[in-house]
Amino acid sequence: MAIAGPQETITAREAGLVSCDNCGTLAPLGSRAVCTRCHATLHSRRPNSAQRVWAWLIAGIICYIPANLYPMLLTNTFGRVSEGTIVGGAIELFEYGAWFVAVVVIVASVVIPVAKFVVIAMLMLGVRYGSRLSAHRRMQLYEITEFIGRWSMIDVFVVAILTALVQLGFIASINPGPAAVAFALSVVFTMLAAQSFDPRLIWDTLEEPQARARR
Amino acid sequence: MRTRHPISENLDSLIACRSCDLLLDRVIPPPGKVARCPRCHHVLISNKRNVIDNTLAGALSTAILMVAAIFFPFIALDEAGLHRDASVMDAVGAFADGWSAPLTIAVAAFIVVIPVTRAAALIYALLPLRLGRRPAGGAARSFRLAMALKPWSMAEIFIVGVAVALIKVTDLADVSLGPSFWAFSALIVVVVFENSTLCEWTIWRLLDPKRR
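Above: the input entities. Below: the structure tokens describing the complete assembly.
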């Protein structure tokens, strides 16, 4: 497979074509609104990508704040109620000596969500103002973000299982706290932000000099 | 695979990278090999063997395992003579009280409804092809739905959540695992297998009415 030099590259859009986002069928740009093969709406770039990404991202960050401030679990043992936040729960696991699980919880509920906020914002700023990172590096970051985002949902499922299982009346019972809902919303919004981002924008900025010359 | 300028030729001989929009000559790689975009290295076509068979096998196993996962006991807890059983449905219903109720719907969707819908959509789209018939009406829509739901199907994440919850609880009480837990665990293997064998590009081509 020969790699074409940069002066030879041409995108579908520059060639007057649009490739279906869904099934990859090529069609002349602007000729029809719907793909002949899979009936998906055709667009060369995802519409209003920037607005959508920022909107979902900000919603995700806003929900992440109560997710950390409010308790995730309400544990009732012999009539005493204790409240556990996300970080508090992980610290408790550390104290039990369950290092590995504590690390899994911290990575899934703190490191991944925060890294996702930072990466998505950085990709958007990179598209708008240019970036010191190469397009390749940014593409890798985007792929990792898209792949890993769903795994943050672990903590919500942990709460669901503990609530379902630990209902032993007076001895011990566990109930979900308000943070569970906020955290689930934050994960969903950040996933939508990543899905609204169009990776082609990373590469479009590289073509701009040529595209401008053509106009 | 090289980019070319004249566009007058047949569009079927070209392919655009989904990830960076680079226009390329379409070269189908030999069986078992993968064709990548020379610019961004995104996979264009992975010419897997038996794509239809493997995807159908994955979808059917998901459907069967999910039935087992829902109807068998999932997990049980014993402490001080008290016994508590929890099924997958109990875990789904954990948020049903009070204002967290909408989360119940979301959890039900993520771990049961969406995985089952995906399996049904894949079977509907691909089974006629496997039997050598024409694709069913709406097969394209159905496959599109299955692909769109992929990130929202979280059965495998649920199982990791179960593992974390178990470690939190084992200090508190005796925990025993039911058949449903093992059905769900097998589901992870199936999901990984399915993801590694599915080539969207190949299936779209097989579903295309013009090519049959």
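Note for the figure: Helices of chain B lie at 51-71, 88-92, 101-130, 139-149, 155-169, 179-197, 200-207.
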